[in-house]
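Reopening this one. Same input as before:
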Amino acid sequence: MLTDQATYNRKRFRNQIFIFIIKLLVYLGLTYFSFSKHDLFSRSHWLERATNALSLFLGANLLISVGWIVTIFWYLQKHRLQKLTRDNFVLGINRITSVLNTVFFLVALLIFFGQKISELFFSLSIAAAAFALLSKDYITNMINGLIIMFSDQLSLGDQIRVNEYRGKVLDITLVNVVLQNEDDDIVLIPNSVIFSSMVINQSKQNIKKLTIEFELDLKHHTSPEMIERELKAVLHPFSSNITDSSFSLKILEIKKDAVHYKVQFLMPRPDKETERKIKRLLNSTILSFSGREVNTHQDAE
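Same output, byte for byte:
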């Protein structure tokens, strides 16, 4: 599998270099056209603006691409081509590249519509200030997203819990973190929430904590010792998937008509399919407690 991943990474990197060469040839051709057909520009101002705008965008894009290729090449050599597609660092570099290309595209667009360079920077500074004031939360999310991408606290594929949400990290954007929960639903959590909430990263612990809470009616009362013994018995086939001595059964609350329990244990190797089987088996056993007849007796006075 690692060999297939490395082959895919090499192919993708070669495609990026091929696209870079094409853009370089177009830029050189455009530069030659600008100097050799200077008289044509004096008669057609829109053609001159279009050429200047395209030259600016391609030139900036080529510089950005050079930076991307050098950085990714260094990273591929460091990690032996194994983490290009699903890695926070590469994700962050790609996001920054997209933002810079968008900025230079907007600048080129303004030049095409006749904006002078001196007026352009003045307009951009005003627009940037207005955008910062009106979109403070969005900018904060972008900064937080970049911090997450370049840190090692959260990684793509990690199993995390944020407040009441838990799931696998599918993507980290400049706006939010994308989770896939146990029901295969997609949950979008803003980056600002990630920074202001307590996040539990179970993948960094290399364990999976499985917890099930349930209530038993007092009229079907079964002793906690018997419940624990039967639950451990049904989990015996999965003993290799459960950390030794990690099983615990706790009474959270004794209510008027029911007892609130919590079952908890650790799985040393997170496995979604095995986790589903264990949960299904435990739930079936717990439901069977409620369907049993309990012999009651009353002491003679």
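So the earlier flakiness isn't reproducible anymore. For the record, DSSP finds nine helices and eight strands in the chain.
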